[in-house]
Amino acid sequence: MADYDVIVIGGGPGGYVCAIRCAQLGLKTACVEGRETLGGTCLNVGCIPSKALLHASHSLHEAEHNFAKMGLKGKSPSVDWKEMLAYKDDVIGQNTKGIEFLFKKNKVDWLKGWGSIPAAGQVKVGDEVHNAKHIVIASGSEPSSLPGVEVDEKVVVTSTGALELPKIPRKMIVIGAGVIGLEMGSVYARLGSEVTVVEFLDDITPGMDKDIQKTFQRTLKKQGLNFIMGAAVQNVDAKKTKATVNYKLRKDDSEHAIDADVVLVATGRRPFVDGLGLEAAGVKMTERGQIATDHWKTSVPGIWAIGDVTEGPMLAHKAEDEGMAAAESIAGQAGHVNYDVIPGVIYTSPEVASVGKTEQELKEAGVDYKVGKFSFMGNGRAKAVFMGDGFVKILADKATDRVLGVHIMGPTAGELIHEACVLMEYGGSAEDLARTCHAHPTFSEAVREAALACGDGAIHA
Ligand code: FAD
Ligand code: NAI
Known about the structure:
By secondary structure, the protein is an alpha/beta fold. Helices cover about 35% and strands about 25% of the residues. The relative contact order is 0.12. The chain binds flavin-adenine dinucleotide and 1,4-dihydronicotinamide adenine dinucleotide. 1,4-dihydronicotinamide adenine dinucleotide binds near residues 183, 233 and 269. It catalyses: N(6)-[(R)-dihydrolipoyl]-L-lysyl-[protein] + NAD(+) = N(6)-[(R)-lipoyl]-L-lysyl-[protein] + NADH + H(+). InterPro entries: Class-I_Pyr_Nuc-Dis_Oxidored, FAD/NAD-bd_sf, FAD/NAD-binding_dom, FAD/NAD-linked_Rdtase_dimer_sf, Lipoamide_DH, Pyr_nuc-diS_OxRdtase, Pyr_nucl-diS_OxRdtase_dimer, Pyr_OxRdtase_I_AS.
């Protein structure tokens, strides 16, 4: 048993960042993690492994489709799936060990095991009870289940199973055209699987700007992904090596079935609070099963909560920002997260990135806005790398010119979006961006051109 200023439960991006920041602020800190490695969903079975497979499969796609166009001739590489998985695991290992190193460097104790909260001020790990002035819950999320669908992580898988399939499936059905479905669907489509995405709604990536939804879906179709939209999955009938997905089309209630070797269920994630003892501790929850918070404080004094287990987008960087803000608040400083400027990125090719309001949200709120749009077709650098598909769209207040939202589909969109994030964080205008010199030839010039299009007009449109 030991006494701590802070015990963080969960070693994902929310928890480990919070623990490190607490230690940096002079607080005696421990982090409880039940997995064998630190880094949570993100490093072990989420962001990092999926990006490794996206990178590997994108490289194959480049070799197969674009190398010859540049005079690079010869046989395309063949896929050694085992080695690709080993590369992915190596990337995971490097990252999770990195967090262990940071814990040692910052003198954060890693309490190995599953933690619970017997009472405010106490955390139980195994048989040991530790005292803590503050407890931060960062227990993350898990895949949500679908009625009539039983996951075995072999034939019917979540993203976790999809990251370590024993072989590349010939046919894959993805249930859900959200972020996981489209990223993992892209991976397997590039590796040769016939991928069909079954989505309940009429548009992919709900919540994204409509322009992006339409163009993105068109591009993914060109890349070989099939879509069945407006389809309510009834159940999945799984056999040993294949499964049938039964669905009803919402428009006419007609019933259909399709087969595949693997079905990926990617219909969202839900907060993970199992075994924490929150009810007994008196921690209030929201109707959607998240821990209710106000500035990262729960309803029980001394217990805080951050990341996927709380409200808001389930994103690693949102969890990290909350981790830092909670640590700073615990240390008596002014923790801060600007929830209006949290970017979202889909790491397909082209990438899709978005921050702030969509056009639909502005319309609904009755805001008078203007649109500056610029196609990557007008960007020399993008054309040189066969990435002319896509655009930058800037939404700015009509009267003040203040930038309210930016939506990008195109090369390195996930990097370009930060130009908009910094601008919006400082309350900048489209003219501020348009008057900033951008190096040539860069993809970033497309962002500036979209800003110019909010005023007198883009040059290369
Ligand atoms: P988690 O990362 O889920 O970490 C929680 C940790 O707490 C876990 O390790 C768990 O074992 C531990 N834990 C839980 N309960 C206890 C307990 N009682 N005792 C001890 N330990 C406990 N987000 C992005 O921003 N970008 C991406 O590219 C991205 N890609 C993703 C790809 C996939 C396939 C998935 C599934 C998710 C992806 N996400 C991505 C989402 C991202 O992983 C999460 O938003 C992020 O991990 C949330 O961080 P967290 O710290 O709140 O929780
Ligand atoms: P999601 O919420 O992004 O998408 C789920 C999709 O499934 C939606 O389009 C929804 O309409 C659809 N759906 C729900 N029920 C359905 C049904 N019965 N039949 C057919 N379709 C149905 O959830 P996803 O993709 O599982 O991702 C979970 C979380 O992980 C997301 O919140 C995301 O933020 C995070 N994540 C982030 C990534 C990134 O930042 N690049 C990558 C992967 C995940």
